[in-house]
Every structure is written in C-alpha cells, then in structure tokens.
Design brief:
The protein has 334 residues and is α+β, with helices and mostly antiparallel strands. 37% of the residues lie in helices and 19% in strands. The chain has 12 helices and 10 strands. Helix 8 packs across helix 9. The longest helix is centred in the middle third of the chain and has 19 residues. It is elongated, with a radius of gyration of 27 Å. The C terminus is likely disordered.
C-alpha cells in the first residue's frame, strides 16, 4: 500500500462528529442585529478582574436555555451548556460551562431587579421596534397567569404567589399574573409586569395605566390609542388614559343599563348595520353607531357589533359525563 493510499484510508475512517446547536445561533444573530448586548452592558454592566462573563452574555445564554429546554432551573444551566460550543456565539473562548453556575446567574438577576425589569424590558422593546421601523400608535393590554408549586417570599411591593382565577386551569395551585402591553399592529410586546396571583384585571390594568403608560409615552411619541377588553372600562382607568392624551378603545360591560337597552333595540341585524371590513365583506362583522354612553367622567362614542363568524366559533359541544350519548350546545349571544 502506498503512502498516498494510506492517507486516504485514514481520512475515510475518521468519524464526523456534529452537535445540534438548536436555536442558539438564531438567538445570537438576533442579539447582534438588534444590538441588545450594548444596551445590557451599558445598563447592567459587570466590572472587575473577578468577572468571568459579562451581563449581556449571561442574558443571551439564559434566553437560549429557556427557548431550548424550558422548565429548567438555574441549577441546570451549567450542565445544559457543558457539551455545547456556546463560546462561538458569545464571542468569548475563555468562558467555560462552570462559569455558568447558579451564583453567577442569580447575581445577574439581582442586578436586573435593582435596575427594574420593566424598565429594562421597555428599553429593549423600544430598540427592537426602532430597528424594525415600527410606528407604534396603538397599545393593547391583556393578562395571563402561570401556576407554581413553590412559595413566595413577602417583600415590599413584590407580587405574591397566591390562588386566583387560573387561566391554565390549575385552580389547585398558587399562581402569578402577568400583564402585558403590545403594539396593536405588529403584536410586539412592549411592556410587561408581574402582579400578585389574586389581583384582578381592573386593579392591575389601573396600575399599568398609572405606572407603565407614562414610561411608554416617553419612548413611543406617536401613541394615540390604548385598547383592551371590558376590564379596561372603569372610570379610574379611563380617566388615567385620557389624562395622558390617549383615546381608550374598549368593550363596555354588558351589565350597564345603556348596553342592555342597546341589545334589546338591536336584536335583529338589519340594513342599519354596515360592513366593517369592506375588503372582506363575506367574513366581515357588521356594526352601527349608537348613542354615546358616559363612564365616570368620560363620554364614550359607542358602536354595537355583530359577527356571525364569531358566533359559530364560540359554540361548543359539551359531553354529559353521565352518558356519552347525551349532548347539548352552549351558544353565545350576538
């Protein structure tokens, strides 16, 4: 066998190893494109000879782990990255998996807490919205809940893990509520805040209107509208929104007498109802303007809307567990 033949045999016999990097490179690309690391290191920087990894790299690593292996604790971060070449996407070959220990990550989270997680989130969302060329004119508010198995520690102004209305159907477990504000067109989340698990939407929405909305107004100068479901329709919340120069767009609760009368007066959809979306007349809801309604100090310009498509989507078949042959339907009103 010649030397050349031996060389080719050696190459062919080598095993090609590969690693599944998952979403890591995509997240790294997003961090670079939106220049997120510059913001993090400026606002929550780490200095000193003892620092092995900066705050921006910690955040990128934690986001990568969260989107790759959800429900892992901080204790699992070191093991998760032990066999991954994560140094490639944080651009620092000196970082080792053992540097990603619980103490390092916890200190970073403490720094975020000290700066203010809502403020930091808003800074990042503004940077992303600007990079995408979004013209943010309307906000939409909504809430969700997450259940937990642990216990909360009572701290001043800190949200508490408590039993409340569970949106993930675990009424047996304590939970935390999260309230978010997103851009009405792109649906990009711009601001969010965690509140206690038993705090209702009326209270948390008022908190966001008073505390979060002024911060958003500072960043997004073109804001005009603030929208949400009927939990937004209280005198205090509407006063706060209007006082900050925005128009409130919401559904007025059915229990208000003027609304009840409007339903009685418009049982049938007649020619007075107009198609709302002219470019999709077949599927478009229909609506008509009705008399103004006063909520607290604010006089609301009102419309009544009906949608056949929405009606059919809200119909549900419910099985009687006592007899699988027994059905009945629950239908929503117009």
């Amino acid at each position: 066998m010649s030397d050349q033949d031996f060389f080719f045999d050696e190459v062919i016999s080598e095993k090609i190893l590969h690693k599944d990097l998952g979403v890591g490179p995509l997240i790294a690309g997003a961090f670079d494109f939106f220049e997120i690391k510059d913001i993090i290191n400026k606002l929550i920087g780490k200095v000193g000879s003892h620092v092995k990894i900066n705050s921006a790299d910690i955040l990128q690593i934690m986001v990568t782990q969260l989107l790759s292996a959800p429900y892992q604790s901080l204790n699992g971060t070191e093991d998760f990255f032990r066999n991954l070449p994560f140094q490639c996407w944080v651009n620092d070959a000196t970082i080792k998996a053992e540097h990603l220990n619980r103490s390092t990550l916890a200190r970073f989270l403490d720094d975020v807490h000290e700066y203010g997680p809502e403020k930091l989130f808003l800074k990042l969302s503004y940077r992303i919205a600007t990079a995408l060329g979004l013209k943010v004119e309307e906000l939409h508010i909504d809430s969700t809940s997450f259940h937990y198995d642990g216990k909360s520690i009572a701290e001043e102004d800190a949200p508490l893990l408590l039993h409340g209305y569970s949106r993930d159907h675990r009424q047996d477990l304590i939970q935390i509520n999260n309230v978010g504000l997103c851009d009405g067109i792109s649906k990009l989340m711009l601001y969010n805040k965690s509140v206690s698990g038993n705090e209702n939407d009326n209270k948390s929405f008022l908190r966001i209107a008073n505390q979060g909305l002024p911060l958003l107004r500072e960043q997004f100068k073109e804001l005009k509208y603030f929208g949400g479901d009927s939990a937004l329709c209280t005198p205090d919340i509407l006063d706060s929104i209007v006082a900050q120069g925005l128009h409130a767009v919401t559904r007025i609760p059915d229990k208000i007498k003027e609304v009840k009368q409007a339903f009685k007066d418009n049982v049938e959809v007649d020619d007075t109802f107009e198609i709302i979306y002219k470019d999709d007349e077949e599927n478009s809801p229909k609506g008509k303007w009705i008399a103004d309604i006063t909520i607290g100090n604010q006089r609301m310009k009102c419309a009544i809307v009906t949608s056949e498509g929405r009606r059919s989507s809200k119909e549900k078949s419910v099985v009687n567990l006592g007899s699988v042959d027994s059905f009945f339907k629950v239908s929503s009103e117009t």
